[in-house]
Design brief:
A seven-stranded parallel β-sheet has the order 3-2-1-4-5-6-11, sandwiched between helices. The protein has a two-stranded parallel ribbon with strand order 7-10. By secondary structure, it is an alpha/beta fold. It is 44% helix and 16% strand. Helix 3 packs parallel to helix 5 and helix 5 packs parallel to helix 6. The chain has one domain: NAD(P)-binding Rossmann-like Domain (Rossmann fold), CATH 3.40.50.720. The protein starts with a strand and ends with a helix. Bound molecules: nicotinamide-adenine-dinucleotide (NAD) and thymidine-5'-diphosphate.
Length: 339
């Protein structure tokens, strides 16, 4: 069994690479990642020595190179994590989101059609459903919820999802899609809420909360997401979408206060800044389908997952300090300086 994992040098992709190498000693895992600002080869240090692992520094939009990799590796399964993934960056500059997230997906699926594949899996997001109001806690996203996006990021992910379903219907490509809620855990890039707040708190820097901090996200420990994808690629029904989420809704401000408390830092570090444009209010997944069909349930409770995550950031300071000392600094100034 050979699995191509695109975006495997990023947050969720790398956790998936480690999960698969550990669980299936007879699988070959081929990572394809062009190492954007969000991709980091040091993240894959523990895999690079493994004879079952291979790394290609390649852009998924590069049709010629992607076809060559398919010709050489003859994958049985492709799992596409590669994406531009940060909403704030998509608001600043949408173009690369459309290129990677939509056109890159197309190149991968064309390669699957040309060389044959048992399964193409698209890693998508609950953000394709738009948002829910705070005063209707009984509402959740199901797989039938209409696509209704807010940001260039979520629109590009929705565009890709529609294309994936079209390749199934039109060409019979054996596809599946997972739409997951917000992940947290090791190797999370420090531009995202939880790792940004941990890093800033540890450095006694202001903790920038958008708007009033009332926005709600449904947080899932990354390893539970990896287990869900593992189940879907092996047992999920072709042509189907599976929602993945933790039934773990929290307001941003509560997360930030919890991080302050866990790290013994003062809440005075919290600074309310201008809201994100088009800011989605609430995400909440109904994971009934994946539970009923595949028996998946989140295994890590938030109270344990956040402790594991904070511990990881404390023990792996070099990993994130290297990141925030580089080009990240100019990104940070641009996003937060006059906010
Ligand atoms: P990330 O930004 O941490 O990692 C993305 C990876 O893709 C990086 O290693 C980057 O180098 C690589 N990449 C980007 N453009 C590429 C290209 N053109 N060619 C090859 N590689 C490229 O992202 P993440 O948080 O790990 O998210 C992975 C996937 O999961 C994305 O598709 C995202 O939409 C989806 N997702 C993320 C979350 C979340 O909470 N982070 C939730 C649901 C779904
Ligand atoms: P983020 O981690 O960017 O994920 P997403 O927008 O894809 O859900 O943000 C999570 C929430 O945290 C979102 O409501 C925006 C908010 N947020 C802040 O308040 N401050 C920040 O500095 C960041 C990065 C996010």
């Amino acid at each position: 069994m050979t699995i191509i994992v695109t975006g495997g040098a990023g947050f969720i992709g790398s956790n998936f690479v480690y999960h698969m190498l550990e669980k299936y000693s007879d699988y070959k895992i081929v990572c394809v990642d062009c190492l954007t600002y969000a991709g980091n080869l040091s993240t894959l240090e523990g895999a690079l020595e493994n004879p079952n692992f291979k790394f290609y520094k390649t852009n998924i939009c590069d049709r010629e190179e992607i076809y060559k990799i398919f010709e050489d590796e003859k994958p049985n399964i492709v799992v596409n994590f590669a994406a531009e993934s940060h909403v704030d960056r998509s608001i600043d500059n949408p173009e690369v989101f459309l290129k990677t997230n939509i056109l890159g997906t197309q190149v991968l699926m064309d390669a699957c059609r040309k060389y044959g594949i048992d399964r193409y899996h698209q890693v998508s997001t609950d953000e394709v459903y738009g948002d829910l109001p705070l005063d209707r806690p009984e509402l959740f996203f199901t797989e039938e919820t209409p696509i209704h996006t807010s940001s260039p990021y979520s629109s590009s992910k929705a565009g890709a999802d529609l294309l994936v379903l079209a390749y199934h219907r039109t060409y019979g490509l054996p596809v599946t899609i997972s739409r997951c809620s917000n992940n947290y855990g090791p190797y999370h890039f420090p531009e995202k809420l939880i790792p940004l707040m941990i890093a800033n708190a540890l450095n006694e820097k202001p903790l920038p909360v958008y708007g009033k901090g009332e926005n709600v996200r449904d947080w899932l420990y990354v390893k539970d997401h990896c287990k869900a994808i593992d189940l879907i690629i092996h047992k999920g029904r072709v042509g189907e979408v599976y929602n993945v989420g933790g039934h773990n809704e929290m307001a941003n401000i509560d997360i930030v206060k919890l991080i302050c408390q866990k790290l013994g830092k003062s809440e005075d570090l919290i600074t309310y800044v201008a809201d994100r444009k088009g800011h989605d209010m609430r995400y909440a997944i109904d994971p009934t389908k994946i539970h009923r069909e595949l028996g998946w349930l989140p295994e890590t409770k938030f109270k344990d997952g956040i402790d594991l995550t904070i511990k990881w950031y404390l023990e792996n300071r070099e990993w994130w300090e290297t990141i925030i000392s580089g080009e990240y600094q100019s990104y940070y100034d641009k996003m937060y300086k006059n906010r």
